[in-house]
């Protein structure tokens, strides 16, 4: 039951919203979180897209599919012999769903422990910080709030010529629910989501063709990392076609396939797939979030205008996560939620947007933080570069996976670390060392003089830092090369 008034009302129960509500409650504020998410059976669930149909279920399938492929292709080299390898896709999906259920229940428990009111339904901002709350069965009420936090999240972008039908043409959510492995799978968009989903189904047996409109691969990554990763993914079996502009997608239910037409430098082509995943980005889920008579500044693509502290143009109204500028990352939204809750409570805190890690959970994983080499060149910033390949790592050799490298970029004059880029197994974990170092303004020498356990993958970070100084220990010295 909703109260008439709260100190803080959060609209949206994803990683940004539910964290904001919990932190506000921890600080002694009376907080409520309005969330409209319901699962396929109509049950209300917290956690938003990330937990229910995004980050968590996709990582569950990535982990399971990786184990499946590793068992079939690599265990024998370790002297581990198994019998006939079989895939139980239903069991794999059930494990994914169970994991999601456990975590959503966990958030519900955290709300109860922190005394956050969970209001199941939709919320809409009205003038004077009034929030219209509509339950799932249509009952409406107005809630007054001292502070309102908009955290509605995002939704997949749909292409007009390839509308989602939930069967043959699907978004990222549908790609996590296939009941059998597609023989031939098409993916429009070779970005983060497309690569992760394409990797899952390739490992499980699909022939995967990825159609990317841009002429460069992973344009948001460091060029050296992007070029190396494309070679690796192609070797694994992902058919990545760049400069491929899709113009049409037609479903033929009789043939149970999708005909996809695209154009590239060689002309027009048509490919047929059992399933087509459209992964061309996401847009803010800001439709119906703000009443028409609310004078709140917005930006292009439905983004809500905010300052560095996520304050909107209306006093006492904040916006966080995917509905505001910046990368659509769960951890970015969560930290914005913490910052806003603490500022509402009177704390003078801020968020360092220059040191937010990014990860692509393929195998090998790709992770980065800070500036890329091309960024520094474009800005004319002098830098030194250190690269350490995992082929020289004893732990990587023991794991039978020496793919990739660690690359560290430091200012040529001050030695302060400006960026770190990793492509390797567990890069998502290794990048945290670089994030912490950069948050504290560390130099490459600081990392080089830090003791790392041996043998570990993390030693590659240590060696890359030493390489920026010109004296790595486990590869030939290359000299400090400032640019």
UniProtKB/TrEMBL annotation:
Domain (Pyridine nucleotide-disulphide oxidoreductase dimerisation): residue spans on this chain: 356-465
**Which cell locations does it reside in?**
Cytoplasm
Catalysed reactions listed for this entry: N(6)-[(R)-dihydrolipoyl]-L-lysyl-[protein] + NAD(+) = N(6)-[(R)-lipoyl]-L-lysyl-[protein] + NADH + H(+)
Main enzyme class? oxidoreductase
**Positions that bind NAD(+):** 189-196, 212, 281
GO molecular function terms noted in the UniProt entry? dihydrolipoyl dehydrogenase (NADH) activity; flavin adenine dinucleotide binding
Q: Which cofactor does it need?
A: FAD
Disulfide pairings: 50-55
- Location of the FAD/NAD(P)-binding domain: 6-337
| UniProt EC number | 1.8.1.4
Name the positions where FAD binds: 59, 123, 322, 328-331
Give me the comment on cofactor binding.
Binds 1 FAD per subunit.
What is any Pfam family matched here? Pyr_redox_2
Question: Which SUPFAM superfamilies does the record associate with it?
Answer: FAD/NAD(P)-binding domain, FAD/NAD-linked reductases, dimerisation (C-terminal) domain
Q: Which InterPro entries match?
A: Class-I_Pyr_Nuc-Dis_Oxidored (IPR050151), FAD/NAD-bd_sf (IPR036188), FAD/NAD-binding_dom (IPR023753), FAD/NAD-linked_Rdtase_dimer_sf (IPR016156), Lipoamide_DH (IPR006258), Pyr_nuc-diS_OxRdtase (IPR001100), Pyr_nucl-diS_OxRdtase_dimer (IPR004099), Pyr_OxRdtase_I_AS (IPR012999)
Q: Which residues form the active site?
A: 454 (proton acceptor)
Record's Gene Ontology CC terms? cytoplasm
Q: What is its main location?
A: cytoplasm
Which is a GO BP term held by this UniProt record?
A: 2-oxoglutarate metabolic process
Write the record's keywords in alphabetical order, separated by commas. Answer: Cytoplasm, Disulfide bond, FAD, Flavoprotein, NAD, Nucleotide-binding, Oxidoreductase, Redox-active center
PANTHER family (alphabetical): DIHYDROLIPOYL DEHYDROGENASE, DISULFIDE OXIDOREDUCTASE
Family according to the record = Belongs to the class-I pyridine nucleotide-disulfide oxidoreductase family.
| Misc note | The active site is a redox-active disulfide bond.
Protein name per Swiss-Prot or TrEMBL = Dihydrolipoyl dehydrogenase
Q: What is the lineage of its organism?
A: Bacteria, Pseudomonadati, Pseudomonadota, Gammaproteobacteria, Chromatiales
